[in-house]
Amino acid sequence: MPSEKAIAAAPITTGVLLAGTATREVGQHGLEIWTVLALAGGLSAVAVGLSVLTGFRGSGSGDDGLNGYRDQTTVALAGLALTSTAVGAGIALV
Questions:
Q1: Please, which pLDDT band fits residue 6 given cuts at 50, 70 and 90?
Q2: Contact predicate 42/15, CB 8 Å
Q3: What is the rounded distance in angstroms from the CA atom of residue 47 to the CA atom of residue 38?
Q4: Is the pTM of this model over 0.90?
Q5: N or C end of the chain: smaller count of CB under 10 Å?
Q6: What average pLDDT does the chain have?
Q7: d(CA 62, CA 1)
Q8: Which residue pairs from 32-38 have beta carbons closer than 8 angstroms and sit at least 24 positions apart in sequence?
């Protein structure tokens, strides 16, 4: 089974590359809808990777009452990252 660091590396790396590319494009061409979506997707991917790295996923079954909230947060960030990336890529290709 892969370690937490290996699992977190993919979204962090992808997010940094996507957010960096979007930031560079904003600097060169100004704000466009695809750059905003790409930036949001990249930052969300980094947030998902950091939550995996720090253990904020809430995958255990504790009595702290936050596990459901943590799971929902991770799913929401992953969904935002995937949606923003897909829509931004679709707009960029059109």
A1: confident
A2: yes
A3: 14
A4: no
A5: N
A6: 75
A7: 23
A8: 33/91, 34/87, 34/88, 34/89, 34/91, 34/92, 35/88, 37/84, 37/85, 37/87, 37/88, 37/91, 38/84, 38/85, 38/88, 38/89, 38/92
